[in-house]
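Researcher: Structure prediction, please.
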Amino acid sequence: MLLLVAALHELDPLYKEFTYSSKISSLILSLGYRRPVIMQSMYIFKQPGIGGEVVPHQDNSFVYTDPTSCTGLWMALEDSTTVNGCLWAIPGSHKNGLVRRFIRGEKGVTFDRPSPSYQQKDFVPIEMKAGSIIAIHGDLIHQSFENLSSKSSHAYSLHVVQTDGCKWAQDNWIQREKMPEPHFVLP
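Model: Predicted structure follows.
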């Protein structure tokens, strides 16, 4: 079982303070964002022996702008290893563009096309020490396996998009009555 708690950056004062801290804002701005918005945050609980897998995906599939602009920030709150369910990615896969989208339509939310099949031999592990952070290009194909260890593997993840020159798609599965305003803006 994989447990996720979403939107902590909006709902919890502690997570809001951390998410909008000078360290995170400096990192986001250093990636070239001019008017970034954090559209999604997730606390990921991978419990010992039961923490579930996350199938291969691209973040732009779920957090889509035109043109694409999503970057995932994945923070290891505990050591993340091949035994307890670390991230795995296909190096260079971000250069091939977006494979499919997760969209909201008349019949609910669904993918616009089937998932391609991937060769597990193409994935490499991204093991991380607690306190480390990685920036994930929105088109990078990545996944994680179940937690087979006796130790938990917790992480905090943010998905950032650009609002300067990028448009939030009306068929995104995440829809809000009012779009959030950028919290970090370059002059």
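Model: The domain at 2-168 is CATH 2.60.120.620 (Jelly Rolls).
Researcher: Thanks, that helps.
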